[in-house]
Design a protein that fits this description.
Number of strands: 6
Order of helices and strands: EHEEEEE
CATH class: Mainly Beta
Number of domains: 1
CATH topology: SH3 type barrels
Distance between the termini: 25 Å
CATH architecture: Roll
Number of helices: 1
Strand order of the largest sheet: 1-6-2-3-4-5
Mean pLDDT: 87
Oligomer: single chain
Largest sheet: 6 strands, antiparallel
Structural class: mainly beta
Length: 114
């Protein structure tokens, strides 16, 4: 288990990308402005600036699997991320990627889901 507890955003980003590349679940704590601080187990989907947001800021994109959430897809800014831990448990992208057009910001090797 890798556990980084630091304010170093690059360390968070490095660990997040490592979890993407190794298809490992992560445990995160973040300040979700509407609901306060949330801790969750999640799938790291992507990181980077998306055309979906006009401000062009980098965001972390997650799929929350525990606790169950009515909006499991979450995008947060780096300053909202408080803690990240890569778990030993892998995830299978096939179980969570349901859309047809896949265009990741961060490169990865997830087979047909890359």
């Amino acid at each position: 288990m890798v556990n980084i507890k630091t304010d170093g955003l690059n360390s968070f980003q490095d660990l997040f990308i490592q979890a993407i590349n190794n298809t490992k679940l992560i445990k995160i704590s973040f300040d979700y402005k509407e609901k306060g601080i949330i801790s969750a187990t999640a799938i790291p989907f992507d990181i980077g600036a998306s055309s979906r947001y006009k401000d062009e800021k980098i965001r972390y994109y997650f799929y929350i699997i525990d606790p169950k959430n009515e909006k499991p897809n979450i995008a947060i800014l780096p300053e909202q991320l408080l803690e990240i831990e890569m778990l030993e448990k892998p995830f299978n992208p096939e179980e969570y990627i349901t859309w047809k057009k896949i265009s990741w910001i961060t490169k990865r090797d997830w087979g047909k889901y890359s």
